[in-house]
Amino acid sequence: MILSLPRAVFGEVGLNPKMPKRKQHTRVAIIGPGRIGQAMGRLLARSGVPIAFIAARNPAAARRAVRFIGAGAPVGLADPRLQSASVLLITTSDSAVVEVARELAQRGKGTEARQGKVVLHTCGSLPAAALLPLKLRGAAIGSLHPYQTVPSPQAGVRNLRGCFWALEGDRRALRVAREWVRRLDGVSFSIRPQEKTLYHLSAFIVCPTVVTLMAQATRLLKQAGVPLRISRPMLRQFVTETANNFADLGARKALTGPAVRGDWETIRRHLTALRSSAPEFEPVYQSLLQAMLTLAGAGSTGRRSRKSKSKVKGQYAKSKSEPREAVS
After folding, report:
1. Average pLDDT, stretch 80-106?
2. Is residue 35 predicted with pLDDT exceeding 60?
3. Which CATH superfamily is domain 7-193 in?
4. Radius of gyration of the chain (CA)
5. What is the model's pTM?
6. What is the topology classification, in CATH, of domain 206-321?
């Protein structure tokens, strides 16, 4: 039996004094409480948003999420009490959003079973239209996606506050999303629904890709005799400063290294070392080198620039065709 919970768990303790309380008839249900769902649930509850239900297919997962969030009652997707929620926040994996929306749309009676409701999802690669079955039942739909990495609920609680959020959808749904972003001291911006995949691709390029590159750098440093206790904090400092330079100066001015200087002797030594110690990474190095050369030449015009670019292309082609001999 699921007991009713005291009013305190609905977020009325520890409200953000700068934000007004929402009307008491507002009840939020979080559906699919994974990393983002749990982190958002805790932050929203602490800011005064009344989290009424935490829904999951696995009852144990719902109960764990309730304990982490500190609010709401654990329920299943078929629980009729979900009908009383005025806002549904779907935080499932991207691949499950459409299926969950379809299943929720089948609950209730009549073509206007979701009339007056707001449904939001946090998927970065799908537009609000993924919730179309619910819109056809009368709900206002939208999406809000944090441009942030959330490897765990605890990390999400730490870094979702103050981050950037991409929003799109119906006007009424956007009003709710913008209020939530304000409560989390974040920055919201609009995105073209039809270009959501490109938006998500941009996050893929800079987040898991950077982690992969840092892991490869750690491996090379280990081979060079640098222990992990040094390499990890050293790379964190290095990458953080690089990101600061990018934000402050722009890509072209923040770009450094042998490709920018035209130091082909160093690049050849890199390639020789890679072919000996990490041959599987050479294609990645070559692709990144080409992208760096393109960025380094961006904005340059005139005869001298064209001549320089031609020379760079020749050097790059030469670096790719040199014999793959290992260093002794």
Report:
1. 95
2. yes
3. NAD(P)-binding Rossmann-like Domain (3.40.50.720)
4. 25
5. 0.82
6. N-(1-d-carboxylethyl)-l-norvaline Dehydrogenase; domain 2 (1.10.1040)
